[in-house]
Specification:
The chain is an all-alpha fold. The protein is 68% helix and 0% strand. It is built from eight helices and no strands. It has helices at 11-38, 45-68, 76-99, 106-128, 137-163, 168-195, 213-226, 230-239. The N and C termini lie far apart (80 Å).
Length: 263
């Protein structure tokens, strides 16, 4: 008899469920507040702030979801950092909505716009990094180029924020060109990954060949019987000590009849 499914959930799966639940609850609460305000009689300053809060929570919830899509993958640390940046950016924007700090808070405004730009960059980069496991050379090169364009655009956006020097028309043209190229890569690369099929690691029966559907089904059935996940089962089997098999038995030499003795 298999154990309950809740016992087989990995920490990564549990963390993903918690993050998604928090996002859904917070966004639902903000949405309900917005609906209540809209059903009221007058849209005063407080009502507009509530509606703005709903929009901010919704926008940055999408950003966090994009980042946590990497959870459970090789680059999940990048996703966690991006989710944290998005949360901090949302806090900055909510402070702007409710506290309305003056423009003399230069450090606050510079930090707020930087975090917003970083949140956007992390969101798009996290979605593209879902293609990091692809083995096709064209996908890998396109991913590196597109992420590099993201970094360049982020730098071109952040530098004027902190230096108050915008570089005039030429700077705006350069920023626009790199932004268009980055957006083009973000659109073309996922489409290209769908059109280019992955090259299999090996043919059936060769070392490195992928598991067949029948083997995957057997592995899943055995994992369910033991009450563990397939990954945990494979890890356990690989870490188990293997017995050294004896050398193959060699057949005894053919019996040779003795040569007749001469008297």
């Amino acid at each position: 008899m298999t154990e309950p499914a809740s016992r087989t959930r990995t920490p990564v799966s549990l963390a993903r469920r918690i993050i998604v639940a928090v996002i859904v609850v917070s966004f639902s609460a903000a949405a309900i507040s917005g609906i209540v305000v809209l059903l009221g009689a007058e849209l005063g300053p407080t009502a507009w702030r509530v509606l703005s809060t709903t929009s901010v929570v919704g926008a940055f919830s999408v950003a966090v979801l994009c980042c946590v899509s990497l959870v459970g993958r090789r680059l999940q640390t990048f996703g966690f950092i991006g989710a944290g940046v998005s949360v901090v950016a949302a806090i900055f924007v909510l402070i702007i909505v409710w506290a309305q700090p003056g423009w003399d808070w230069e450090l606050f405004w510079d930090s707020a716009w930087t975090m917003v730009a970083a949140s956007v960059a992390f969101s798009f980069a996290s979605l593209l990094l879902l293609l990091a496991d692809r083995r096709r050379k064209a996908i890998r090169i396109g991913l590196i180029v597109t992420l590099s364009l993201f970094v360049i655009v982020f730098g071109l956006v952040v530098v004027p924020i902190w230096t108050d020097e915008y570089g005039g028309e030429t700077y705006a043209r350069v920023l626009g060109i790199f932004s268009i190229l980055a957006a083009l890569g973000a659109i073309v690369l996922p489409v290209l990954s769908l059109l280019i099929r992955e090259r299999p690691e090996g043919h059936a029966g060769e070392p490195g060949a992928p598991l067949s559907a029948a083997s995957l089904a057997l592995l899943g059935a055995e994992a369910a019987r033991r009450g563990v996940t397939p990954d945990e089962l494979v890890s356990t089997l690989l870490q188990a000590p293997t017995s050294v098999s004896p050398p193959p038995h060699e057949p005894p030499p053919a019996y040779e009849q003795p040569s007749p003795s001469h008297p």
